[in-house]
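Table S2 (continued). Query chain:
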Amino acid sequence: MSTLQVFTGPKDVQSYMLPLSSVPSFARDAVIFQRSSRECIVYSAIAKGVVTMPYPLTSVRRQKVAPLQLIKYFNDCGRYIACFCGLADENDGPTPSVRIIPGGHLDMWYAICHYSENRYGHGSKCGFFLNITSIYSFGALVSNFRNLPAGPGTYEHQKLDHHDYTAVATIELQTIYRALPPNIRAHVAPVFVEYGGEFSMHNHGMRMLNSNFKDRVSLGVTEGAERCLIQPVSSLFCSSNPQGQNRRGIFISLSFSIADSA
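Corresponding output:
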């Protein structure tokens, strides 16, 4: 019988992971596979499951985006990486983003669950853990995502265009994924080469989080929807018209709060 080989990097990386015994059942298979891979294993709401996503390349030099620049890269593109909380049946709000944090060693960077309360996985609801530095150094699957729309601009008409472009891109990505052979889609994390993360515009402004564990924005949605905690966002991603309504007519209001008091 073969033994599962888990690539973790520095010895202290184990302290950043939620113990496997504490990982909820809905994410157990995904976490086990993620910890045995050197590629970017994430949740995709577009695919409605776990996928292997290419690591992003810079648009100019076509080099891997440095881990330190990942948050800026995704926020500029209007996209984000989602954690495994999206697999939970009770998740009926925006698909939660990951939180990128520095490790205990120089130049080590990790991505952990959206709901983590500190860098050691306390509060994690899904056990998500990516060794970003390892993927940056050894991952083979890369893409510049030329098939996806560029990030939203500053002006209102640019934001409206971005909303339309990402809506079309979402449909195209869903079509591409459904066209994969059934035996490929049956894999724990099928390779989805065209997928570059979730669109912030279609997830109520959800963005990548950093290591500031206290700051949150409480995003309230009318029509009885539950409140969710996300990274502070600008009006650029909050609405697609001056009245503060998105294309589905749901009013979005922002109010700053601290996670501990939410």
